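Assess the record.
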Amino acid sequence: MTATTTAPLATTPVPTTRQPSARLRAWATRAPLLPALVFMVAVTQLPFVATLVISFFDWNALYPKARHFTGVDNYQEVLTDADLRHSVWTTILLTVAVVLASLLLGLVLALLLDRKFRGRGVVRTLLIAPFLVVPVAAALLWKHVLYNPEYGLFNGLLHYVGGPQPDWISNTPLLAVEASLVWQWTPFMMLILLAGLQSRDHQQIEAAKVDGASNWQIFVHLTLPHLRRYLELGALLGSIYIVQNFDAVFTITSGGLGTANLPYTVYQSFYQAHENGLASAAGVLVVIGSIVIATFALRVVSSLFREEVGRA
């Protein structure tokens, strides 16, 4: 009896491609963003760091050799000086009034544009137009075309009906600035709220109508709760921009008549009084306030995205 043995088959190794590591893939996807990140840091963060450093110095541009470190004295002066505290209060009052008025008018216009009617596209374009105007041009428009006591449109209409001829800027300076800002920012609020209205659950609204709910009840119990996040987003984003507004105050009143807000006060301290340290401290406070508001805005945006993903 003979035993036969079979030799084992030779196996050729299969070449394997080495997969890139997760860290390498992450760097590959983020590398195209590095130039933009470097540019952003160079033009935003480095100047802010320089401003932060200068804010701790008593630094007058007219006497550069007399500058010295003062710690937080500039911040204390910003918070305790009567004129600076008045500019902070003016900034708060201007921001609150403009945001609330813009939200209310924007809600009314959004509710109107949410209805179907002939020419809705043209009306929507015309209502968006004020937001597309350059801020300085919008302020000049209000100052000369509307407010001017001699040839302005407002006094022209009052003269036509035999009314008085007030000097709008001198009599109501802060209201004059607020009106121009409300005119410019109402379209922004309208667009945000219109997006919220168009994202409603129409089946739920139809069911409420079938159950006998009136339009007012649908608005109070369904529409407003749905628009709460959009109202918060509009208020926060509007506050970020209006807190930093300089164009309207500078163009319409030149900061006079009690309308100087904090950004205009920074301009006065830096370019007119040449107090670099004091102006830097006021500017840092404006940035900190904007960051706080922006943080809440980002949270609202994140919650809106989560809600949309949950509906999907």
Summary: The beta strands are 57-58, 68-69. The two ends are 76 Å apart (CA to CA).
